[in-house]
Structure formats: structure tokens, C-alpha cells
Amino acid sequence: MRVATVNVNGIRAAHRKGMGAWFAGRGVDVLTLQEVRAPRKIVEELLEDITGEDWHVVETEAAAKGRAGVAIATTLEPQSVRVGIGDPYFDDAGRWIEADLPAPDGGVLTVVSAYVHSGEVGTPKQVDKYRFLEEMVRHLPELRAEKDHALITGDLNVGHTERDIKNWKGNVKNAGFLPEERAYFDRFFGEEIGYRDVHRDLAGDVPGPYTWWSMRGKAFDNDSGWRIDYHMATPELAARATSAVVDRAPSYDTRFSDHAPLVVDYQF
User: Fold this and answer.
1) Which of 34, 188, 212, 227 measures 20 to 30 Å from 246, CA to CA?
2) How far apart are CA 11 and CA 23, in angstroms?
3) What's phi and psi for 243, nearest 5 deg?
4) Residue 219 CB partners (closer than 8 Å, separation 6+)
5) Taking the model in full, what pTM does it have?
6) How are strands ordered across the β-sheet holding 149-155?
7) What angle do CA 44, 48, 51 make, to 5 degrees?
């Protein structure tokens, strides 16, 4: 099963800039998207053009127009779909959707498309980010206990360790690399909650591989990036992961988003 996740930075723009060319022939079974930033009808129309017919699409848009929005497109028919992480405060935030899919081993695979707040130190945006991360601390163990397999994918907007940001020294006081944010990921991937960072497990102890680069300056050309897009899996599912690839565009002008897709194969 091939699962790809990507922050599209607006589905209309990504479609216009060639997302379909990336997707064609990639053999993806499940595609999760963040920052879709479009109404349901447009999301469905553009995704059908990208993926082809006979795909199942579930999505949730934000109440704030032109903001956030997450979606899951899959060849597998979802058995159940839930919007929101649990706290009613986030129900219309367009930041969390989960779908129960039939796994090849006969069990249930719950796939989540998540978009954590970028945050901003000293503002309500950072307060909301911590509130959302607290909800993840509460909800992730529930998914692990209740489902055969659980996979949280998406733009989680935190670099966990110094390997995850090229210029980590210059960002220790900025949202995305604050010690308080990173401590949540210590819990996600530690004994307390027990999920695995699939991309890191497969990549090993190396810089990156990065998944986001600023559109400004020479960040992309210099590979001055951040690894903030994740596959966060329950241990049994993570053990089935055989490869993780960042589909980095060949050049700055061929990017369809400021993020690159993270594509992981799971062998059942």
C-alpha cells in the first residue's frame, strides 16, 4: 500500500502548477492533503482531474475561507469518516479528518490527514497550536487502542530534532522549533504514546530529508529546508514500512507547492 501526503498550499494553485503530472504513474493508493483551501465541490472536481475517476474523496474545509482544509483521496472505500480531533473548538478548523479503510491484512487502517497550526510566539496562534497538540496527546492513544492500525499523516509544523531543520540554531526561539513544541514529539514517539516516525526510521541519522522550503530567496536551491511533514504510525504498521521518499521537484520553477510529497510504501 502506497500512501502519500502533501501540503498543497492551495489545491487550485497546485493543480495549475502541475500536481497532476507528479501524481500520474506514481501508483499511490491513499493521498492525504493539507492546506486545500477550497470548497468541497472544487476539491472534488480538481482531485478527480488529478487522480482520475473512481477515487473516494473525503474532506473538511475551514470556517475561515481560504484557510487550512484537509482531505483524503483513496482507491479504497472508507468504512467510516470522522471530522475533528475531539475538541469542539477545532471542529470547523479544517485541520483533522480521519477515515477507516480496509487494510490488506483484513483489519482496519485509520488514516488521518492533519494540519497543525504554524503558530507564532506570543500570539493566540501559538496558544491554539499548543491546544491542538494537547488534543493529539489525548487522541493518539485512543486510536492506537481502538484500531488495528493507525497512521497520522500531514504537515505537523514542528521539526522534532536538530536533524530536521537545516538552520536549527537560528530557529530555537521561533515557532516550529521551540523546545516546548518539540517536547510533544518526544511524547508522541516515546514510550508514553508509542508511535513511530516512519520517515526518520527509514532515513536514518541524516540531515532531513527536508519536506518544506521557503519560497523566498535560495532556500530550495540550497536545500535549506525543514522536515515538518510526517507519517506517524502505530508500531505494527511502522514495521511494515519498506521505503520513504520525498518527491522533491527537480528545480524551483517545477514545484507545485512549497512542500514536497512524502511517499511511503507499506508491505502487507
Assistant:
1) 188
2) 13
3) -155, 145
4) 213, 225
5) 0.98
6) 80-83, 96-102, 108-115, 149-155, 229-233, 196-197
7) 130
d(CA 198, CA 241): 7
CB 61 within 8 A of CB 69: yes
Identify the helix (H) or strand (E) that includes residue 197. Answer: strand 196-197
Q: What is the mean pLDDT of each run of 10 residues along the chain (268 residues)?
A: 98 98 96 98 97 96 95 98 98 98 96 98 98 98 97 98 97 97 98 98 98 95 98 98 98 97 98
Q: What would the grid cell of residue 233 be? A: 504510525
Give CA–CA dist 16/208, Å, rounded.
28
* 196 secondary structure, DSSP code: E
Q: Which cell is 263 given? A: 511517499
Answer whether 36's CB lies under 8 Å from 77's CB.
Answer: no
- Looking at residue 90, what DSSP letter applies? G
Q: How far is CA 57 from CA 5, 30, 146, 259, in A?
A: 14, 10, 24, 21
Which of left, alpha, beta for 5 (phi over 0: left; psi -120 to 50: alpha)?
beta
Answer yes or no: are the C-beta atoms of 35 and 7 closer than 8 Å: yes
The grid coordinates of residue 72 equal 483524503
Counting beta carbons within 10 angstroms of the beta carbon of residue 207, is it exposed (0 to 12), middle (13 to 18) or buried (19 or more)? middle
CA angle 168, 169, 174 (to 5 degrees): 70
